[in-house]
Amino acid sequence: MISSVLHADTPDTVAVLGRRVQYKYVVAAILVSALFLDILDTTIVNVALPTLGRQFGADSTEWVVVGYTLSLAVFIPVSGWLSDRVGTKRVFLFAFAMFIGASALCGAAQSIEQLIAFRVLQGVGGGMLTPVGLAMMFRVFPPAERARVSTLMMVPTLAAPALGPVIGGFLITNAGWRWIFYVNVPVGMLAFYVGLKLLREHREPTAGRFDLAGFILSGGGLASFVYALSQGPRDGWASANVLLFGLLGVTMLVGMVFVETNKAQPMLMLSLLRNRMFRNANIISAFSIASFLGLLFVLPSYLQILRGLSAQDSGLVTFPQAIGVGCSTFIAGSLYKRIGPRRLIFSGLFLSSMTIFAFQWLTLSTNLWWIRGLMVARGFCMGFAFVPMQASSYATIAPADNGRASAIFSTQRQVAISLAVAVLGTILARYITMGPTGLVSDPQRALAGFHMTFVVAGGLALLGSVAALFIRDSDAAGTMSPRR
């Protein structure tokens, strides 16, 4: 029985299948599994939206994505305090169980309303998985080993978005749309069981009381702001609902900053942004993740709308990016210990921006192998940026503040992604007009719109490379090998 071979052994190791394994690697394996499912689920669902629309005969399928995103916006900020107060193991397993259970419910949904409600529940779990998991990881891995574990973190961060369209297209074609949710259940249950048996609890005695004002202002502000961003490209930025929720979101977020900076125990510890290394890492992360996922948002649309590829086939074109990432992450991890984050992040993002700018030369008949080659090159460059950024972000953060720092880092990433998708979606909406037959009425004009989005995505990576110049390698000295 598996329960007989999973048990705690020593403070530094656990026994798994009769072999002693270092506890920190067990934490990393569970975290990678959970994050992979979480990120994979997001990209798979995007592929399934047309199928869901046909299944339920509804024009509100976008709320399958929007509802999940709004739920993330509410629960990411509270995750840091909750894990400190209740315990990282309890909160992580609760979030994981919520995610797995909601996945099963989504698969069994009988109406679009049920599916949207279950996706909101899924977002509750998904919103807490990443920040709590990162806090757990940075507690068990000492600073000197974070470059090594950061290479593992690239698996869910960079590979899952590339695999999502491929797996999603395959499941929808061969098993039906319900299996894009059911697929999470068996893998998730196994990882949950291992976590239940092997993870150790950790609480912070300085967590303080629940910050109700901070929760309302941060959750409500982020949800309103993200909603406005999601609706802007469709309804127009001057529409009443976009202006109302955008203004409400900004007002609440400004109020949140005022309230949180004047509290001894805030929900979002914004004072951590005074930490130079952490602040710079957040700025760079915002630009880089916006560029990375921004391109993965527009390129499949180019392949499907202008080139006529299926979702699965377009995924096979973008997937080679994962090959480039796999080739560079281990090299980046080794170089990081000798030269530090500054030059690696700058080089990775600068070269990545150049590869993205090259997408401007795509035509309506560009050889798909040329696109695959660009994706390999882009993945290779991004690996050099993401590994050192992940390794150095928390270099000067006190262990007791890891949970709060992870909540800020995850919040920043969610806002950056929403902004990127909103801006790029707005550009495409202005240039793409669908004809009565369901085809693009003016392919050349649509192509010009895609070219503009490639310029924006490349520009975001370029701005990230400029921000990397403000990093001081000395701030990340604890995560590097001692200089001889």
Task: Tag the structure with descriptive keywords.
Growth Hormone, Chain: A, 74% helix, globular, mainly alpha, three-stranded antiparallel sheet, disordered N terminus, 484 residues, 16 helices, 3 domains, 2% strand
Number of helices: 16
Level-1 CATH class name of the largest domain: Mainly Alpha
CATH superfamily of the largest domain: MFS general substrate transporter like domains
Across the major sheet, the strand order is 1-2-3
Distance between the termini: 50 Å
Helix content: over 70%
Rg of Cα set: 22 Å
Mean pLDDT: 85
Main location: membrane
Transmembrane segments: 25-49, 61-82, 91-110, 116-140, 152-173, 179-198, 210-230, 236-259, 280-303, 315-336, 343-362, 368-387, 414-432, 452-471
Pfam family, one: MFS_1
GO molecular function, one term: transmembrane transporter activity
Please give a structural write-up:
The chain is mainly α. Helices cover 74% and strands 2% of the residues.
Secondary structure topology:
Elements: E1 6-8, E2 13-16, E3 19-22, H1 23-56, H2 62-86, H3 88-108, H4 112-140, H5 146-174, H6 179-182, H7 184-198, H8 212-235, H9 240-260, H10 276-306, H11 311-318, H12 321-339, H13 341-357, H14 368-392, H15 402-431, H16 443-468
Antiparallel strand pairs: 1-2, 2-3
Helix pairs in contact: 1-4, 1-5, 1-7, 2-3, 2-4, 2-8, 2-15, 3-4, 3-7, 4-15, 5-11, 5-12, 5-14, 8-9, 8-15, 10-11, 10-14, 10-15, 10-16, 12-13, 12-14, 13-14, 13-16, 15-16
